[in-house]
Amino acid sequence: MVACIEALLFVAGSPVSISQLSEALNLPTQEVEKGLAQLELDFRQNRGLRIQHYQGRYQLTTAPELSQWVEKLLGLEATARLSRAALETLAIISYRQPITRPQIDSIRGVSSDGVLKNLLSKGLIEEIARSDKPGRPILYGTTSEFLQHFGFEGLDELPPFELHEQENFIPEEQRLLKD
Question: Which string of DSSP letters, residue by residue, matches 12-64?
């Protein structure tokens, strides 16, 4: 069964859900979950592949520590680099998602229009929905490509974000303006 799951993830063109795998294999979802867990464990032991999971979907990816060779083979070295502004904006989105452009701008202190367009075109972020606030601004979030780019299997692998270590941190309850 583990080999079947591996084969299905290999041929899938995009991330698949446990229910899709369960249906294709005619197995209960609990069996598929056990198979995915076993496969993840197998891949972590000196293998070039990993299983990435994001928003309940699973995908076979290359191991992040091998990215330099994959980039070289595919000619991606020059296109894989992100500007400091792009990295800053990605960090804000990844920790605060879903988040609107005005919220990003207020955190960064500058307009993020160009950076957001660039990140959207690279597929690292996506428009998730629209806010219920006046003007119904777009809500942004990260994508599975974001996870692949940085070698994360899921958002739970992001390093902890601790605001209290910043010099000018003001607890939310003491702020004059709320987000």
Answer: -SS-EEHHHHHHHHT--HHHHHHHHHHHHHHHTTT-SEEEEEETTEEEEEE-G
For the beta carbon of residue 134, count every other beta carbon within 10 angstroms: 6
Domains, the chain: 2-66 (1.10.10.10), 84-163 (1.10.10.10)
Q: Which residues of 5-29 are buried (b: 16+ CB within 10 A; e: fewer)?
A: bbebbeebeebbebeebbeeeebee
pLDDT in tens, 55-67: 888 998 888 788 7
Q: How many C-beta atoms surround the C-beta of residue 35 within 10 A? A: 21
Neighbouring CB atoms inside 10 A of 119's CB total 24
Residue 174 has pLDDT above 70, yes or no: no
